Each structure stands twice: as C-alpha cells, then as structure tokens.
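To whoever picks this up:

The parser on our side crashed when reading a file containing two proteins. I've narrowed it down to the boundary between the first structure block and the second sequence. Both blocks are reproduced below exactly, byte for byte. First block:
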Amino acid sequence: MRKDRESLTACLSGEPLDMVLAEVLRWPPRRAISPLTACLYHADERVRWHAVSALGAITATLVETDPEAARTVVRRLMWNLNDESGGIGWGAPEALAEIMAIHGGIAKEFGHMLVAYMRPDGCYLALPVLQRGLMWGLGRLAGTRPDVLRVRHASVYLPPYLDSEDQEVRGLAAYASGLLKVRAVKERLDALKADPAQFTFYNQGALIPVTVGSLAGTALKQLFA
C-alpha cells in the first residue's frame, strides 16, 4: 500500500493531465483506488486535484467490469462526508462529482446526493472547505450533465452560496450558476463582477488564478448563451 501510494503520488505530481491519467489507468482499479483516495489529502495542490481527476477516471472504468465495486467507491466517499466517519471528507465532493461527470449511470444513481449536500434540510455541508468542493463539483457536473442537477432543483439551493463569506465558495457558486443558467441570480452576479477576491481554480487539469469577479462575468455570459 505504501509503495503504491508513493508511485501514484509521483505520477499525480506530473503533467499534463492526459499523460497522468494514461499512466493511472494502467493500474488495476482495485489496487489504485485506495492510494488515490489517500492522495485527496495530500499537501500538494496539484497532487490533490490530479487525484480527483484520476479517481473519477478509474472508477468510471471500474463500472464497466464491476458495477458494485464502483458503487462501493462512491459510498465510501459519501461516508467520508458523514459526521459518524470521524473525518473531514477532504476532496470527497470533488471526487464524487468527477465520477458522475464521467459516467452517466453513476450520475443518474447518485446525483441527488450532491443536491442533498447543498440543502439545509438535507445532508448540509457546513464547513467552508467542503462547500468549496461541493460548489466545484456542481460546476463540474453542470458542465457535462446539467439535467442531473436541474431535475433535482439544484438551482433553488444555489443562490445562498453566492453570499458566502468564503471567496472560493461564492466564486464557484457563480460559475455553477452560469452553467445551470440560474437567471434568477443575474443581479447578484452583476454585483459580484466587482469582487476582487482571488483563488486558484482547477479546470481540465490546469490550476488557474481567478477572481470571483471574473467567474461572475463568465457566468453572466452563460446565462443567456
């Protein structure tokens, strides 16, 4: 396990993402999943995000050969977000969304959980660090399978996140609002265009410096596209 984790960590620290994923996908899924999950906690930002992408890719391949084993991966990630797990759940919302973004069957079966994590009357994630992951995950899934979120009324629960004190939460909520075409928040997005708060946005393998305002501007363009 230790050697596997060291080998996969070295792989995840590389780039570009397509080469990283090609290397990870050479591993037997059952052998790679636990070390990849552990890498969601890694101190290096690139390793953590590449672990999200790799875990999504390898779990999606596992669905084709062992659907129940893939469901177990998803359920373990959800368990990590459960108070009873004793952990914080670092990277779990992002990894869940990445798996769903790649595999439609998993999205159809478990997509309701991403919305449940948004809801104060559901499985609400109170920690800002988890809300960051959730908002990123909503944007990731909205970019590939928006209907999975729309049918579960994600847009109803999204607006409050635009007022978060955490810049990353409100910026990523703005991004997701644009992809989901939540036109009811247009005025709020207009106001956020002037928000100068900065953070790093992971998109298609790249770590990109952005501001809340830039993501709000992008979202406004998407609302009526």
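<<boundary where parser fails>>
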Amino acid sequence: MQVAKKLILDRLSSLYSRQEIESLTRLIFEKFPGFSRLQVHLNQHETISAANLAQIKEITDRLTRFEPIQYILGDTEFYGLTLKVNRAVLIPRPETEELVDWIIKDCHLLNPAILDIGTGSGCIPISLVKNIPGASAEGWDISTDALMVAKENAEINKVKIDFIYADILNLDYPSHHNKYDIIASNPPYVTTSEQPVMLSNVIDYEPHIALFVPDAKALVFYRAIADMAQISLKPGGNLYFEINEKYGPEITELLASKGFINILLKKDINGKTRMIKAEKGI
C-alpha cells in the first residue's frame, strides 16, 4: 500500500493540495482494493496486487488531467446514498444536499407528490422519496442520457420514480393542473460570463447544458418553472430552487410578481444565498 500511496502523491503533489490528495487517496483505495477507511489506516503494509496498482496508475493519470474523481470511479455519495455518475450528469454538490435536507425537514404532508425539474442523476427525487414517508416523485430532464443514469440510480437505491423526457422551456403543461405538492429544481444558473473563472475539472468534463445560461437570460429557467408551478402546484404547495447567489433578490421579485407568497431565501453552510422557497397561494 505504501508504494501505491507514494505513486499517488508523487504524481499529484504539484497539482492538488495535500488535503485533496489525502481525500483522493482514500476514495481510490476504498474503490479498488476494497478497503474501508479504517482498513486503509490500519493496513499500511498491505500488498497491493499488480492489477490494482495498474488501475491506480490509470486513475492518477486521469487525475493529472483534472478529470473529476467521481467520473473516474463512476459513483459518488449524496445524502447518504450511492449514486452512479458519468459525464451525462452533473456531479451532485453539497449545496444540493442542503436543498434536499431543507425540503425533507420542511415537509409534513402525508404522501406528497413531488416533481424535480432538470433531474440529472436523480439525486433530488431519489433522496426525497427515500426520506419522506409515502412520497411519490417524477424527475424531468431534457437529456435522455441523464434520464438513463437517473433510472439506474433509482434501481440501485430501490425506489420507484417516474423519469420523463421534458423540455421546461417548451412545455405543454395544462394536463398537470394542481398535481404536485412540491416542485424542486436545481436548474442551469451559471452565466456564461462566469465561465472563465471556473475550474477546468468542471468546464472540461461536466455537461454544459446543465450548467450555463446566457447572461441576458439568467432567470430563464426560474421564470419557466414558476409559470409551470402556477398551474401545476396544488394550492399551498411549495416551490424550491437552488440558485446563483448573485440573483437572490431578482428571483424573489420574479416569484412575488407571479403571485407566490411566503418567499424565503436561505444561505448554505458557507453563508452564501443558494436556495429559495415559495408557496403557491390558496
């Protein structure tokens, strides 16, 4: 194991911080040799097979090109669940876990009907159905590849969710009148002007269709989803968004202009305004 650890450190030390390397090393060892975190700590002198050492070398090669470790290993953890990920879907972020946690703690309904728009890996509806008793959910996305990943994740986590191809910007939705108790979305909200300052592991590998919006249309998805929610949310139902911290006031104003009430902005663990909730009036 010491040889493998040295290989990882030597190849990555000029590219990643020591803390990042330690985290990456733990993830690599847990995935391939099959060691738990405790076993990695205890079995310092365990011999790594030649096959596993070759795999570790391949992983570090990809890490030197800043490919996300989640894509390399093929899965990630989200809200205590294991989810498959590939380049068709965004890697779920801690901010989205906080949004999920807010919805779960906020929900006191029996058997709520939930819709997640732009579902990607399915992380939001899967986590909600796993943690809200009796909940049913749909997940919509414009990417058929993303929907395939989401369906696999639902099977892995033993939940039933309807994943549906839908384009929220071109949607015929009268048939969804008063159907949902909760609508949630983590839509594309990074503006194109912000792209140059983003890290290469995001720009080069994650799906741009799920990330970016033109500066001139920064709120296009929030507007479309709010319009749909005016029809599709049940009276008293709640709409939850993950947001770009720059646009909290504008999104608040947008939702208020469309008749939503009890609008609440929420900060994430880092003190950034990254979530918003609004209620459909009765």
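After patching the parser it read the second block fine. The mean pLDDT is 92. Residues 2-65 form one domain.
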